[in-house]
Design goal:
- The chain has eight helices and two strands, in the order H-H-H-H-H-H-H-H-E-E.
- The chain is elongated, with a radius of gyration of 42 Å.
- It is mostly helical.
- It has a domain at 49-179.
Length: 221
């Protein structure tokens, strides 16, 4: 009488559950990655050149903001501040010499006004505008001082007009710069140059067999 005993590895339900669950996250992730539509994928930023021009024309410097070139804002607004200072300075000088020139013409043509000025010349504009340490006599007299103020008036009026023209030109430059920057936003300007040498077969047109040569290629990226 004989009996046989055979050992069998017990069924490990814990291990089977663990192995099965460890595969599920991978399957789920793969499934959802495939189902993501292209519309939800992040798109590369590209500014609208037409919108940049219109917004830059309405609000100076806003075109640079739309292009996300924030470092240009101090340059843009610094230029406008400089133009505003030039306009204010030249306009103030022009008004001062303009009033003084009118007063001195009235001084020469109106005896009543001349008598009032001679009594108290300290409050007269063409006297106040004289540089410190000088008098009308040392400058060359009334006639010479009249010519000087007329010349100064025309000079500062021309400077004021040039300042206005420069401001308009600078304003146009900021718009053009923003437009060009928007157009060339995704243009690759990296100085990546590659030079490669490789062997090649040269075709002999005279009828003989091809010869082995060296080819040089320059790639612009």
């Amino acid at each position: 009488m004989s009996a046989g005993i055979q050992a069998q590895e017990p069924f490990d339900s814990t291990r089977l559950t663990t192995d099965t669950l460890s595969l599920q996250p991978k399957l789920i992730v793969k499934k959802y990655v495939v189902l993501i539509p292209d519309s939800l994928k992040p798109k590369a930023f590209k500014p609208d050149p037409l919108k940049v021009v219109w917004m830059g024309a309405i609000i100076p410097g806003f075109g640079q903001i739309l292009n996300r070139k924030y470092w240009k804002l101090p340059i843009v607004y610094g230029g406008f501040l400089g133009c505003a200072y030039a306009i204010t300075w030249n306009s103030g000088k022009y008004q001062n010499y303009k009033n003084a020139y009118r007063d001195i013409l009235q001084y020469q043509s109106d005896p009543i006004y001349k008598a009032q000025v001679d009594k108290d010349p300290s409050k007269v504009s063409f006297i106040q505008i004289i540089p410190k340490g000088y008098t009308i006599e040392t400058i060359g007299g009334i006639s010479q001082w009249t010519k000087t103020m007329q010349s100064k008036q025309e000079t500062y009026r021309r400077y004021r007009d040039l300042s206005l023209i420069a401001t308009i030109g600078y304003y146009a430059i900021t718009i053009v710069e923003a437009y060009v920057d928007a157009q060339l936003y995704d243009f690759d300007i990296s100085p990546d140059l590659s030079l490669r040498f490789q062997p090649t077969l040269l075709n002999d047109r005279s009828g003989f067999s091809n010869t082995l040569g060296l080819q040089c290629s320059l790639s612009l990226k």
